[in-house]
Amino acid sequence: MRQGKKARSTQRREDSLSPDRIVEASIALLDSSGEKGLTFRALSERLATGPGAIYWHIASKNDLLTAACDAIVARTMSAPVDDATPKATIRALALAMFDAIDAHPWVGSALTRAPGQLPMVRVLERIGQPLRALGVPDEEQWATVSALLSYILGVGGQNAANTHFAREQGLDRTNFLNEVSTVWSQLDPDEYPFTRSVARRMSAHDDRVDFLVGIDLMLDGIGVARGR
Amino acid sequence: MRQGKKARSTQRREDSLSPDRIVEASIALLDSSGEKGLTFRALSERLATGPGAIYWHIASKNDLLTAACDAIVARTMSAPVDDATPKATIRALALAMFDAIDAHPWVGSALTRAPGQLPMVRVLERIGQPLRALGVPDEEQWATVSALLSYILGVGGQNAANTHFAREQGLDRTNFLNEVSTVWSQLDPDEYPFTRSVARRMSAHDDRVDFLVGIDLMLDGIGVARGR
DNA sequence: ACCTGAACACCGTTCAAGT
DNA sequence: ACCTGAACACCGTTCAAGT
Fold first, then answer.
1. pTM over 0.85
2. In terms of CATH architecture, what is A1-59?
């Protein structure tokens, strides 16, 4: 039944526009040239169409960014994570988000700019379940996930800013952090003793390890709060 | 000696431009009409000059935003906080930053976008000192402040996003959060049980209290890490 | 030294007109 | 139903020209 002319007229031409194709092209553009690389003109050129065509499928640039972000987050959060303990699961999920934002820095700011929307909800849900399993009482669950999410977003945002800044100056991340470290160690010793003392370790740090330190701090804190 | 023509020629006319005046006008603009309200045209109109004039004093819009951010952060971090214990001091400093970002939402994103620069360093230094007093060993100090900072930035960013979104839709924060809560409680029960269960508490929450929950989680975690 | 304001090279978004 | 592409109302930034 679904063949011949009838099917043909319902089907999209292979190269026609669709929200999915637009989102995929956006991701490619964002990954290759950063947040400011995503323009309707560049996008429509890549899709061999006019800028106006995109508006038939997507309401605004903001929506487009959120949709692109959601595509990445959905992939990341749908990956199976079956670790032994709830804490290990939370760690694994947090790390997965860290890696996703590291690979797609623009996801960090996109997530922040879409509070309460689908991408955030995916993360909230996925982290919330093991949190419940941890035994955090109902009244404390919101504040606890919220804190974990904020931390993940915070680190993600700073990571994105670091890579963005580095790229802007034509350096790689390591060189950029080394430069910051140098500036820090030349600060006034009376005004900035702590920053100076920590400068060298900052440039030598492993982002992923540091990220987990924060997660563990919070997970340990959950234990304390529960009187363990 | 410093009078008459000589002084006059060195002195600025009272209404002449200066980095300080530009930054103050920028803050006013940012507070009243948000991040997208800060344009060189609006700014130069407010300062009764041309757009080009500003570039004599400030290198770029990015620098301007960072300078405005730094003015707020400097004020916030220079306020005296003499609490009994190091933990209480960290709490008070974190809360001061929370309140500053709450009053000036744009500071959140500006801070994130200026990694390793002066505004961040001020916060780093101020929180680092009590952290050292807490007895956190040298090797762990960077990762620990870094985690606290990331959390503060993360919460600040989300707060900024919430107020921005609310403003965009012509709602106040409370109404905006209520709307989000409603959407959440209508999500699919099989796919989003946790989000649904937490929806009501989310809209009823007190941002400041939730913020402190996260800080305390981390401070408690520091205790655990040190074997206390 | 500092300011003016037109001009340049962009944006997101809209919309009449096409197929 | 979907696409085209010119046009609108903006941006940040530059720069010759002024004082």
1. yes
2. Orthogonal Bundle (1.10)
